[in-house]
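The authors assume throughout that readers already know how a fold can be written as discrete tokens. What matters is that the chain and its backbone geometry are given together, residue for residue. A single example would do more here than another paragraph of explanation. For illustration, here is how one protein appears when written out as sequence plus structure tokens.
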Amino acid sequence: MSSSSSASIAKLKVAGTWAGLLEVETENWTVPMLREEIAKRSNMGTESINLIFAGKVLKDCTSEEKSSLSQLGIKNNSKILACRVSVEEGKTLKNELLADDERNRRLARIRAAVTALSKRHAHGALPIEDFDIELEDQSGKKVHFSETDRLAIMTGLMLHTSGKRFIRKQMFTDALEVLTMGEEAFSLCNPKSIELVDNIPILQIDMVWCYFMLRDIAWIAVAGLRLKNAREGLEHAHGKDSSRFRLLQAGRTSELALYLRLELLEGVVAYHSGQFDKSRKFLASAQEKFFQLQVPDEALSLVMSMGFGEWDAKRALRMSNQDIQSAVNFLVVEREKREQKREDDIRRRNEIMQVEQKRYGVTPLQKAVDLQRLTEVVSIGFEKELAAEALRKNENDTQKALDDLTNPEANTALQHNIELRKRRRQQRATDATIERLVSMGFERSRVIGAVQVGGSLEQAMHQLLTHSRADTTVAAENSANAHGSTVNNNASAPDSTPTDLALDNLDPDALDIDCSNEGPSAAEIEQRDVEMEGEIADELARGDALSDYDIEVAKEGEAINEYLALLASADGTSSSQPSQ
């Protein structure tokens, strides 16, 4: 016993603000504990000390905070250097680490929210939100892909949209993180499905724009490759010299600002690669486009006098090569599209609300749950599903519903009713799975065994096709043994059947079964990051089919002048060199 205890005690050799041997329990001590002990012996505050081990600063505000010293590799006779830092420096370091931790958490939330939204919207069914997400081409028409590609494209587009929001906020490091996630999502698509889609080339340009705004020359090589892929991708999507794109846009030059940014970045990469002639060519072309995109005051005033706002008028003139008639036509068509979209959104929202009402069932007098009253009750702090059941039971009487929700016995009864309805819905899903598989020619007893082993219709079919009759029977018996407590509980229920064993494993969403009048499914009431999903949805709602091409080019103009000046300076230096 004594030898086991002494083995966990280690002697650390500390130097710096305090020097000496320090005995610690490496299995139990953490970095904050070590810092506090050394700070105490140094007569200093913990924020005034940095601890360095093996050339690395030990940090409090990361995963190291919960790691023991032994997990960090600190053992007997390890050397720890304690360095003095100013209080302000210590606070700054801590704040930077906390900010980095918060940033990582936010990025993780964005990825999770985008994944959840994509899964719910990609299959085309009515979602649980009061909005719907659909894919459109540059002309605003809906486009269709396979379900797998649709999921990947939708995920990539939402991440791209989130990345552009960070770009607008000048948060280019965060933007790069999210855009990289978007690039990964797009890579899951069938290349043939997306070769005429320009979102991926635009994402590549946005990533290089972030490199440029961060002034990170280390990315020059990869930036050049991304721009090469972007130019090739745009030619595939838009046609040579944007011929296909302009045909869709009725001859307008909506893409001009995007190509200006592309050529500017190509010029920057060429300059830093020592290819000055190539750089000058790209920058001259970008500058020409910049001049084309400058909106004359007279044209702007004339379009605005027709009842259009300044932002809309500028955008239309930029995308119409300053042609006033074309710009006005563009604005009229865009206004009609917005009006049509508003009507479609209202219709879609009504459809979604009807589906939500069906999920909650009907009152004893066959009325739907009042969603406005449901929102009021939920705003007080009650869980949505429980509040819906209280309103359903009480004929949408808000006060009576609140009475039930605040009465412990009545509240328990509401929860019991919800669980019973869920079990009935799941039971129907189980029975429907069995009947469908039996109708395909499988023996009923084998089907029940496969369903008991668990999962969706596809998983049960896989069991039946890949396992022999004996294997299916054994698997069913193993499943029954694993769910022994479930069997005993179900045996006492008068309407229980052997298929109850797989209730928790079945996936009703994989079946074409109408369970809409039985309340929300488990998938629909899963924990959601409503705040983050709302932010992403709001960002999507801000855009339209031409948002990617609507670029304010002021920063691009400044950069063009900067690099043309650098090229002029390089030319001057070169000409002043004496000839050999």
Remarks:
- The longest strand covers residues 9-16.
- The two ends are 85 Å apart (CA to CA).
- Confidence is low (pLDDT under 50) at residues 1-7, 124-132, 472-477, 479-526.
